[in-house]
Specification:
6 helices
């Protein structure tokens, strides 16, 4: 197997096996064994998430949805209407500039922003993992294509060699036939 890998590295990558990076060695081994390289990055990534990371992803997903915007708009509208009506009755929780509402909104933003950032950082890490997987799949595909080109070139070369051998045989038979035909008229003249 080692010689096969060295041969593949020299034939396909024009370098020694020991000169390759670890990832390229791993891919070359998979090419030699005819094993798939592609993998589901999402499943692999999800396996390693902690409870806090999953919760952050859910919060970020909800915070970036229309459901959140609609619910939040209804709550804000309700708060403003309640306090405006309360102003007329003189039983106000949060008077007109709505300072308490502003405090609550600031606290939600202060909590939600880092949670969304954590989720985005994980998405970037997942994208890096996907890009690395894409590189490996593309490299393996490229190596397989190069390998197929070599096989097709080898088949073509054998076919050309067979064709040349047949043509040589045909030419030899044709020369013998021409030689025979050129000698037969002389024999026919001598016989008469």
């Amino acid at each position: 197997m080692d010689q096969n890998l060295k041969g593949l590295a020299e034939r396909l990558l024009h370098t020694g096996f020991s000169d390759l990076e670890e990832r390229e060695k791993r891919i070359l081994k998979r090419v030699a064994r005819r094993v798939a390289v592609s993998q589901d990055v999402n499943d692999k990534f999800r396996e390693h998430l902690t409870f806090g990371q999953r919760l952050a992803d859910r919060v970020a997903a909800f915070g970036g949805s229309w459901s959140f915007i609609i619910i939040f708009a209804v709550i804000l509208g309700g708060w403003i209407v309640m306090n405006t009506i309360g102003l007329a009755i003189r039983d106000i929780i949060d008077p007109y500039p709505f300072i308490f509402l502003n405090l609550i909104l600031s606290m939600i933003a202060a909590i939600q922003a880092p949670v969304i950032m954590m989720s985005q950082n994980r998405q970037v890490a997942k994208d890096r993992l996907a890009a690395a997987n894409d590189y490996e799949v593309n490299l393996k595909a490229e190596l397989e294509i190069m390998n197929l080109h070599e096989k097709i070139d080898d088949i073509r070369m054998r076919q050309m060699e067979e064709l040349i051998a047949r043509q040589s045989e045909s030419l030899a038979e044709l020369r013998q036939l021409i030689l025979r035909l050129s000698l037969e008229p002389d024999m026919a003249v001598e016989a008469s």
